[in-house]
């Protein structure tokens, strides 16, 4: 993020600093690191977290509960929420180094790892973080298109009846989503995204509440009866023994994905104003974000399971567990699409910052990469600074992710694999290792031992979740034909 801001805000920051120095009031507009004054608060940080966390993951929780049952499902949700909050507090303390209050700022997850651990772990962090971010942006392209298609199908079912085929291709909607992202990707950096995150957070609450309300109405409806059990889908009745095992593994991956925000925690923390200390504000924001999402997840997962039973669809708003009122289903899916428009930006900004920072570092004299061109925005009095490299590279990135999404338009298995691949290294392993290094915790001490037990336990969970998702993807690929309309979950 450091290099990114240096590149994308070069002209703006330089102008601000000159003006401030002439007036003799440096402290009012410039932070302790010479950057433009940060303005983030608990509210904006919580909005970023909720935007990142309450995403497409919530839509698959009823299905996950159906695989795990009334006992294991809620227990695993609470375990993941506790682990996510605990490790996020460890990571928040690492934003500055060597001390969490007055040390040097680190602008990205990789810089944090470099400051506290160094060596090969920096490269491993980069591969895990940016690979995860790319995967999430592809996943969100798929999910947003499914929600857009669901609006069209909902109206079709309302007009032609629930038995109509109403087959609609996802691909035009992926293209529409990509075009919107190409425009929004020209927002210079994370610091300018607060309005979009707040809007997206509101949308996530809206569709979660709609899904919850529809589930409650279904449970309370006359003659409602579905099959549920303490252990979920039953072997020999609903699924075979091997299917039960693989689906349970995949469900764990879905839940892990549903809590992922460690990948962007440092970038969010870098938007916070100080005082108060950034780590304290970030811990409050993490608590608000994780508590809010856990509440929604437990309600959506358990009530969704009660509504649909062991036949819960993979996506409970687009899988047509609900058909009526069709206009409310439409509104919920529009909210999902708007939310994912914002969430895509929250996750891709660190990628943009990393690439642009590296390029400006490597070719500092290249005008194409570093020059900012002022454009007056008509009727607003504002000036927008265009960087041609930023325009070209970000447009290319959005196009590539959209094409990959078109080639592999799977929803549940894709989510599970992303969750499994990123959860352990970014949410558990690296925060624990940096905490041990920062606090100089002695090897084989009680604290060291229980942190290692937590770390190894999460590694095993990630491996079995990855295995379940890979098995699911392999089954999808057996019947899949690229660029042909797919059956909708």
Overview of this protein structure:
This is Amino acid permease 6-like. This protein is 69% helix and 2% strand. By secondary structure, it is mainly alpha-helical. The strands form two sheets. It has a two-stranded antiparallel sheet with strand order 1-2. A two-stranded antiparallel ribbon has the order 3-4. The longest helix has 41 residues. The radius of gyration is 23 Å and the shape is globular. It starts with a helix and ends in an 11-residue tail after the last helix. The N terminus is likely disordered.
Strand and helix map with partners:
Blueprint lengths: L1 H7 L1 H14 L2 H4 L12 H12 L7 H32 L3 E2 L6 E2 L3 H8 L3 H41 L10 H14 L9 H27 L20 H18 L3 H8 L8 H31 L17 H37 L4 H4 L2 E4 L6 E4 L1 H20 L4 H28 L6 H33 L11
Antiparallel strand pairs: 1-2, 3-4
Protein name: Amino acid permease 6-like
């Amino acid at each position: 993020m450091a290099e990114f801001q240096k590149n994308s805000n070069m002209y703006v920051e330089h102008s601000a600093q000159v003006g401030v120095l002439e007036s003799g009031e440096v402290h009012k507009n410039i932070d302790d690191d010479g950057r433009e004054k940060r303005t983030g608060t608990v509210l904006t940080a919580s909005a970023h977290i909720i935007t990142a966390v309450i995403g497409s993951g919530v839509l698959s929780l009823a299905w996950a509960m159906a695989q795990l049952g009334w006992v294991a499902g809620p227990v695993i949700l609470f375990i993941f929420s506790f682990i996510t909050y605990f490790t996020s507090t460890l990571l928040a303390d690492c934003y500055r180094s060597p001390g969490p209050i007055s040390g040097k700022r680190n602008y990205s997850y990789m810089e944090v790892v470099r400051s506290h651990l160094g060596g090969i772990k920096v490269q491993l962090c980069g591969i895990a973080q940016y690979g995860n971010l790319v995967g999430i942006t592809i996943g969100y392209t798929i999910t947003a298109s499914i929600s857009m298609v669901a609006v069209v199908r909902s109206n079709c079912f309302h007009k032609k009846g629930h038995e109509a085929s109403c087959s609609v291709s996802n691909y035009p909607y992926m293209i529409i989503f990509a075009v919107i992202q190409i425009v929004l990707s020209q927002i210079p950096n994370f610091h300018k995204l607060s309005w979009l995150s707040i809007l997206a957070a509101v949308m996530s609450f809206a569709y979660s509440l709609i899904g919850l309300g529809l589930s409650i109405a279904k449970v309370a409806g006359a003659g409602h009866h579905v099959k549920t059990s303490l252990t979920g889908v039953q072997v020999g009745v609903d699924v075979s023994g091997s299917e039960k095992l693989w689906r349970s593994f995949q469900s764990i991956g879905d839940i892990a994905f549903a809590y992922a925000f460690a990948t962007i925690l440092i970038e969010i923390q870098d938007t916070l104003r100080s005082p108060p200390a950034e780590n304290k504000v970030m811990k409050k924001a993490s608590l608000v974000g994780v508590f809010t999402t856990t509440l929604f997840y437990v309600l959506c997962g358990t009530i969704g399971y009660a509504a649909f039973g062991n036949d819960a669809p993979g996506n409970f708003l687009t899988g047509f567990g609900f058909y009526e009122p069709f206009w409310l289903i439409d509104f919920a899916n529009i909210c999902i699409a708007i939310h994912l428009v914002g969430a895509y930006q929250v996750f891709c900004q660190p990628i943009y910052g990393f690439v642009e920072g590296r390029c400006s570092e490597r070719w500092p004299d290249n005008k194409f990469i570093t020059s900012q061109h002022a454009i007056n925005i008509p009727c607003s009095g504002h000036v927008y600074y265009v960087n041609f490299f930023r325009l070209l590279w970000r447009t290319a990135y959005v196009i590539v992710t959209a094409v990959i999404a078109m080639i592999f338009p799977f929803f549940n298995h894709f989510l599970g694999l992303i969750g499994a691949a990123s959860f352990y290294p970014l949410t558990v392993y690296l925060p624990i290792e940096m905490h041990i290094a920062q606090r100089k915790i002695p090897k084989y001490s009680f604290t060291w031992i229980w942190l290692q037990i937590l770390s190894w336990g999460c590694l095993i969970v990630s491996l079995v979740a990855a295995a379940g998702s890979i098995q699911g993807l392999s089954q999808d690929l057996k019947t899949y034909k690229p660029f042909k309309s797919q059956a909708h979950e």
